[in-house]
C-alpha cells in the first residue's frame, strides 16, 4: 500500500481542506496537531514527531502559529523525516516569505528546505487569507472593521485555493519540485472595498476604519498576542501601508487549473459569518 501524506496543522484552515481533498483523490491523509487531528503532534514535544511520521512519505508543513522562532524545531523534525524516508515537503510560507525580516524564521525555513537534497519541496507563499475576516483575526465589531492599511491594497486569497494548490503539489511532487508559488486572489482590493463587500452580502452597515499601526499592534498584544509576534504584524501590515501589498498572480490558475476565488464570491458564500445572531 502507498504511504500516507502527513498534514501538519491538520485541524487548521488549510490543513483540514488539504486532508479532505487528498482523501477525495483516494490518497491516505494523516492530520496532526495538538487537538482535533488523527494523531497528536506538538512542535514543542519532539517525542511526538516519530509517531506522526510513521508510514508517511510526504508532508504538508505548517509551522507553529503565533511564533517567530521555530527554525530549530523544523530542522529537527526534517532530520527525523529525512531518516524515515521522506520524499517531499510542501511548505505553507507567506507572501514574500524569502524577504521576511530576519527576526521571523520564515526565510530560514525556506532556506533549510532548499539546502536539503534527500527530498523535494514546494513553497506556497499566500497573500493575506480571506478567512481572516470570518474568524476572529480581523473581526467586524459594532459595524466597524479596524486594520492599519494607509489605504493600501491586498490580493486576499481563499484558503480553499491554497489547499487546492497544496494538493496538486502533494499528488505530483515531481512536477512541483523546487516550485515557489505566490498565491493570491484575482484582484488587489482595499479594506474599504472589503467593508463595502461585507456590508453588501450581510445587508448590514459595515465601515472600514484605518488605525495607527503601532496602536493596533499594542492593542493586540494587550489582549494576549505574544509580544514577540509584533514583528510579524508590523511586517505584514507595513507592506500594505507602504503600497507594497500583494498583487494578483496567475499561480493558482496555473497549478489548480481554475481561477482563484474573488473576495466577493468568498463573502457571498460566508455571509452568515457577519450577520448578527438574531438574524441567523
Ligand atoms: N492568516 C493569513 O492571512 C496567512 C497568510 C499567509 C500565510 N499564513 C500562514 O499560514 C499558517 C497557518 O496555517 P492555517 O491558516 O492553515 O492554520 P490555522 O487555521 O492558523 O491553524 C493552525 C494549525 O496549526 C496547529 N498548531 C498550532 N500550534 C501548534 C503546535 N505548537 N504544535 C502542533 N500544531 C500546532 C493548530 O492545531 P492545534 O492548535 O490544535 O495544535 C492548527 O491545526 C501560518 O504559518 C501563517 O503564517 C497565514
Number of helices: 10
Q: What best-fitting shape do the alpha-carbon axes yield?
A: globular
Beta strand %: 15-25%
Q: Please identify the structural class as seen in this structure.
A: alpha/beta
Model regions low in confidence, pLDDT < 50 over at least 5 residues? none
Helical residue percent band = 25-40%
User: Which assembly state applies to the chains in this document?
Assistant: single chain
- Cα-atom Rg, whole angstroms? 19 Å
Number of strands: 12
Order of helices and strands: EHEEHEHEHEEEEHEEHEHHHH
Q: In order across it, which strands form the biggest sheet? A: 3-2-1-4-5-6-10
Topology:
Blueprint lengths: L3 E5 L4 H12 L4 E5 L5 E2 L8 H5 L2 E6 L9 H13 L4 E5 L13 H10 L4 E7 L13 E2 L2 E3 L6 E2 L4 H13 L8 E4 L5 E2 H12 L4 E3 L3 H10 L7 H12 L9 H6 L6 H7 L11
Helix pairs in contact: 1-5, 6-10, 7-8
The structure holds NADP nicotinamide-adenine-dinucleotide phosphate.
